[in-house]
Amino acid sequence: MAEAAPSIFAQMKHVESREVADAAALSALLDDDPQPFVVRGLVKDWPLVTRGLNSAHEAREYLLERARPVPFTVTIGQPGRDGRLFYDDDFEMNFRTARGKLPDIFRGFDDNEDRSDAPAIYLTSVDMKLFFDGLVEDNLSPVDDRDPLHSIWIGTATRIAAHNDFPRNLACCAVGRRRFTIFPPEQFENLYVGPLENTPAGRAVSMVDFHGPDFDAHPRFAEALRHAQVVELEPGDAVYIPSMWWHHVEGLDPFNVLVNYWWRDTPAFLGQPQEALNHAILAIRDLPHEERNFWRKLFDHYVFENPAEVTDHIPEQARGILSPLTSRTAGQIRAFLLRTLNR
């Protein structure tokens, strides 16, 4: 079992609990509440939850019965790192990835269960529909009305650095316990975010070790803690994380399973904002100061403010991508960017 929570967690505000009677009530809550919240027992009737309450071994057997005979990608951490999947001293990853059938991977869980120096083992963001038969149908999503991506996360006791995601997220604790530490989006300046392109799992992460924060190296983290919320999930509980909220995630037991649902409220044909940020770094950040200021005004005019004056003087049929985007005009932008980036 995990050690007692470090003192920083004990001092945090708790994520507020909400009660919902059914999926319709949850949907209404998701539309109305811009803050994170927890729903206790939301998925307590899932077969995966009930099997896990019997034993970790029974939960693994349940998953094996439904796993397709295809290779899974697994993350394997270094022994003695307290389950923290992060960078090493040279800013390489302190873990490796491998591929194997799920029975072989689960055998690794069994072999390392009682070892004090066992490596972290983690299967991350596995698409439930692609890798399992019947798992989605047996354990029904509480947010199916939003056409989410169904992902399952299976691991030993792990620590995942604070990061954020563009989609909205409902994370359901199925086996073991999870601790989520959540921060508002604007706290990125106080979380000491690391590299944008060299990341553990595709998203930039906080460089702060939450189990031993170095306030000399990261003094602004003290301000981030003033805005932090924490929740510890039991099997069957779920936490809602709005878009772009930072979250540090810990699996607290020797075997943990999380199911999460990601969805976005905007059409799928729209681009990813992170890609726009990367392109702006490439094209704008290192320009002379006066030129950057000019481009800031252009971004405000066309993107962030986008007043009616942008298009009032242009005939409607000639506004092109200045009109609200459709799948066709979004495709035109994407094709134009591909042409220009490949020159």
Tell me what the structure shows.
The protein has 343 residues and is of the alpha+beta class. The chain has 2 domains: 7-263, Jelly Rolls; 273-341, no CATH class. It is built from 11 helices and 14 strands.
Mean pLDDT, as a whole number? 95
What class would the helix/strand composition place it in? alpha+beta
Give the fraction of residues assigned to helices: 25-40%
**Rg on CA atoms, Å:** 22 Å
CATH arch. level architecture of the largest domain: Sandwich
Strands side by side in the biggest sheet:
2-12-9-14-7-6-3-5
Overall number of structural domains: 2
Shape: globular
SSE string: HEHEHHEEEHEHHEEEEHEEEEHHH
Q: How many beta-strand elements?
A: 14
Low-confidence stretches: none
Kindly report how far apart the N and C termini lie. 55 Å
Q: What's the CATH H-level superfamily name of the largest domain?
A: Jelly Rolls
Strand residue percentage: 15-25%
Query: What does the largest sheet look like?
Result: 8 strands, antiparallel
CATH topology of the largest domain: Jelly Rolls
Q: Would you state the CATH class of the largest domain?
A: Mainly Beta
Number of helices: 11
